[in-house]
Amino acid sequence: MKTAVVARKHYSIASSKKSVDTETDSYLAKGAPGKTVCHGCHAISTGRRWYQDEAVYAKLVKAGTVKEVFCPACEKIRDGYPSGQVTLKGEFLAEHQDEILRIIANEEKRARERNPLHRIMGLREEHGQLEITTTDEKLAQRLGRELHKACGGTVAYGWSHDNKVLRVQWER
User: Do the domain assignments include residue 62?
Assistant: First the structure.
């Protein structure tokens, strides 16, 4: 009687990771060689990573060895092209607006320390609602999560499938 030989499949790290769609934001640079600085916010790019350091920015600009451009966040703000929209509404908003605005400012500050491209583009109050637009969908998600954690209420997330936009609704 013959025994069947079973071939074992060899797995690598690449085969265990999920196949994630790497759709990129059209505003993100493709990664220019060398250092680039943003003329608007003074962020510095090395390839694809942006970071904030005023001392390094001043030194690089003084030396004249860097290319000056606008970073993706400054371009989005200039063009009015948000990637995140957070809408806040409810009676709690009217009663605690200062506290909510502090939570939003603190969360943006934390996000910018990690990545200077994560910024709030604008705040607009209309019909008892507060609408916040952001340069990144992850910042919009963070704002919704922090408001829910700090103030309660209900939060709903709506991701767009064709363009990278997130709409967050928070109400209490």
Answer: yes
Contact 53, 132 (CB under 8 A): no
Q: Which element (helix H / strand E) includes 141?
A: helix 137-151
Label residue 36 left, alpha or beta by phi (over 0 means left) and psi (-120 to 50 means alpha): beta
Tell whether pTM > 0.85.
Answer: no
SS3 of 29-77: the string is CCCEEEEEEECCCCEEEEECEEEECHHHHHHHHHHCCCEEECCHHHHHH
Look at residues 16, 46, 77 and tell me which one is the last residue of a structural domain: 77
- What confidence tens digit (pLDDT) does each residue in 39-95 have? 899 999 887 788 999 999 999 889 888 888 898 899 999 999 999 999 999 999 989
What is the distance between the alpha carbons of residues 100 and 104, in angstroms, rounded to a whole number?
A: 6
Q: Is there a single domain that holds both residue 69 and residue 110?
A: no
- Counting the structural domains of the chain, the total is 2
The answer to whether 85 and 121 are in contact (CB under 8 A) is no
Report the C-alpha gap between 74 and 65 in whole angstroms.
22
